[in-house]
Design the sequence.
């Protein structure tokens, strides 16, 4: 579906609405993250063909559950913010089938094979695949490293702890920030559902591995 002035106008209105909702206290899942995910999706859309409004809206609204986490103090899944997502889009006059599709795209985020989730790419729309990849790309590379330390710091996690690394990712607290890299982030390049997303993810994962190698070299050389 081609990009139109109407699409741009509708997304700009939505962007203004969401910007007002996300403060700096939504750590690592703030409005700047949403904008980066939106840009990642636009990059993937240069190769893939999908509905730009559905994709853009899902990128902007996919972390609405983080506001619930901030306010209520425990983990929420993306679909638990469906009521808020639907209310915002309905207020904008978006039709029900489009709202349903945006919600389906949001539900595709935060589901990972490394967490034991079943990901059936063949049954997913191209919009779902793009939004999912765009979100995961922001967890990788230099930005991904920064976000991991921002979020781990908010949770009070140590830099490193000599604890077992789990085979599967579990949301919430991990034994250390470095554990989060090994239990989730270093697996994400294999989770990508678009060719371009996978190519970018491999590059960004290489940078993260180089960083971790340097980190452990410095930790090993530090005096006790």
Sequence:
């Amino acid at each position: 579906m081609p990009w139109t002035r109407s699409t741009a106008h509708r997304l700009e209105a939505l962007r203004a609405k969401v910007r007002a909702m996300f403060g700096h206290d939504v750590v690592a899942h703030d409005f700047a993250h949403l904008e980066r995910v939106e840009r990642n999706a636009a990059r993937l859309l240069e190769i893939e063909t999908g509905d730009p409004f559905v994709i853009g809206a899902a990128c902007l609204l996919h972390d609405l559950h983080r506001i619930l986490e901030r306010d209520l103090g425990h983990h929420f899944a993306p679909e638990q913010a469906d009521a808020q997502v639907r209310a915002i889009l309905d207020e904008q006059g978006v039709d029900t089938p489009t709202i349903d599709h945006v919600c389906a795209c949001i539900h595709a985020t935060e589901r990972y094979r490394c967490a034991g989730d079943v990901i059936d790419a063949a049954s997913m729309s191209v919009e779902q695949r793009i939004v999912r990849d765009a979100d995961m790309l922001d967890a990788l590379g230099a930005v991904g490293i920064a976000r991991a330390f921002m979020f781990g710091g908010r949770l009070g996690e140590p830099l490193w702890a000599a604890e077992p690394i789990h085979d599967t990712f579990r949301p919430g607290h991990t034994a250390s920030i470095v554990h989060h890299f090994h239990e989730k982030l270093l697996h994400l390049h294999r989770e990508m559902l678009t060719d371009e997303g996978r190519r970018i993810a491999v590059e960004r994962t290489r940078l993260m591995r180089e960083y971790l190698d340097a980190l452990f070299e410095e930790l090993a050389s530090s005096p006790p």
Summary: The chain has ten helices and no strands. The radius of gyration is 18 Å.
